[in-house]
Amino acid sequence: MSPSPRARRLSLAAVPFAAAALAAPLLATAPASAAPVPAEDAVAKYAALGDSFTSGVGIPDQVDAECGRSDRNYPTLVSADLAPGSFTDLSCGGATTEHMTEPQGSNPPQFDALEQDTDLVTLQVGGNDMGFADIVTRCAVLGAFDPNGQPCKASFTSGDSDELQERIEETAPKIDGVLEGIAERSPDARVLLLGYPVIMPDDGSNCHGTVPIAAGDAPWLRDSQKSLNDMLAERAQAHGAEYVDTYTGSVGHDLCQPEDVRWMEPLNAVDAAPVHPNAAGHEAMAGAVLGTASAAPAGRL
User: Fold this and answer.
1) Which neighbouring-strand residues pair with 45?
2) Measuring CA to CA, which residue among 137, 152, 116, 15 is closest to residue 74?
3) Engineered SS bond to 195: which of 54, 116, 155, 229, CB 3.0-4.6 Å?
4) Do the Cβ atoms of 88 and 48 come closer than 8 Å?
C-alpha cells in the first residue's frame, strides 16, 4: 500500500526538533534531511522498546498484527536513517513497564531486544501503567452526557486528591526500574526516553463533535499529560538517559485538527488507531529522535 497523501506531505526532515532546543518552534522550512550522526558515533545495535504510541498501531502496513506494529513507526524510520548494524523493535500495543521483563502474548519480554553491546535504545512507556485506555473511555462516555461541564475530572478527583496525579506518581518508580534494567543489560547504551505527543489541543479547547471530551475536562487532561511528560523527563535525567520532547513540536497537530494537519487521530480514525499518532505523527517523533541522536550527549564534547 502506498503512503497516504498526509504522509507524503511530511518528511522526517520537516520535524527535527532536538532535545537541545525543546522550546523552539518547528520551522516552516527545514534542511533536506536530519543532521547525520557523525561516523565515529555510528550506531551498531539499536533496540526500540515501547507501547502502542511506539508500535504504530493501525498504520499500514502492519507487520505484527498482535502488537499493532507498523513498518512506518518511528523506530523503523529512525533505523532507516541511522542504518545501524542491527535493529530490533519489540514495541507492542498495550505494553506496560511489566512487559519489559514479561511476555505479552506472543511478543517476548521487550528487554530481549537488549544486548551487552547495544549502543542505542529508544523507550516510550508509562501511559498504559496509568490506564490510558480507561481514562480516554471514561472521559468520552461522561463527556457525551455533560459536554459543557467537567464530569471526568470530577470522577477522578475528590477534595484535594487527583487520581491521575497519583497514578503518575505511582508510575515513576516503574520507569526507574525500566531505566535501571536497561543499564544493567546494555551498560554502554545511549538511552532516549520519549514523552508523549500532544493529544488534546494545547490551548485547552475541545472538539466535542469529533471527540466527546467535555469543555471543562479538556484543559485538565492536557495538564495531566504534561505532568506525565514532566515525570518522564525527571526520571530520564535522574538515570543519565536523555528525554526526547515530542509534545512541544506537535502543538497545533492535535486530534481536533483537520485530517491533513493532525498528527493524532480522533475516534473516527483514518489509517491509525483512534487517539493514537498517525503516520505523520510517527514521522514527527522520528524527527525528534534523530535530532537528539545527531547532537552530542550531555557530558560529551
Assistant:
1) 86
2) 15
3) 229
4) yes
pTM score of the predicted model: 0.86
CB 76 within 8 A of CB 12: no
* 91: annotated active-site residue: no
The active-site residue out of 52, 186, 224, 294 is 52
301 residues of the chain, pLDDT tens digit each: 434 333 333 333 333 333 332 233 322 223 333 444 444 568 999 999 999 999 999 999 999 999 999 999 999 999 999 999 999 999 999 999 999 999 999 999 999 999 999 999 999 999 999 999 999 999 999 999 999 999 999 999 988 899 999 999 999 999 999 999 999 999 999 999 999 999 999 999 999 989 999 999 999 999 999 999 999 999 999 999 999 999 999 999 999 999 999 999 999 999 999 999 999 999 999 999 999 998 877 644 3
Nearest to residue 13, comparing CAs of 295, 286, 296?
A: 286
Q: What is the CA radius of gyration of the chain?
A: 18
Type of residue found at 161:
S
User: Grid cell 489509517 — which residue?
Assistant: 271
- Cβ-Cβ contacts under 8 Å for 120 (sequence gap 6 or more): 43, 45, 46, 47, 82, 84, 189, 190, 192, 293
Find the angle CA(165)-CA(168)-CA(173) to the nearest 5 degrees: 140
Q: How many helices (H) and strands (E) does the chain have?
A: 8, 9
The CA–CA distances, whole Å, from 259 to 7, 71, 116, 270, 272 equal 11, 21, 43, 8, 12
Catalytic choice (99, 253, 276, 282): 276
Cell of 6: 498526509
Residue 50 grid cell: 515501547
Residue 219 carries which side chain, given as an amino acid letter? P
Contacts of 199 (CB under 8 A, 6+ apart): 221, 222, 225, 254, 255, 264, 275
- Please answer whether residues 101 and 181 qualify as being in contact, where contact means their C-beta atoms are separated by less than 8 angstroms: yes
Amino acid letter, residue 107: N
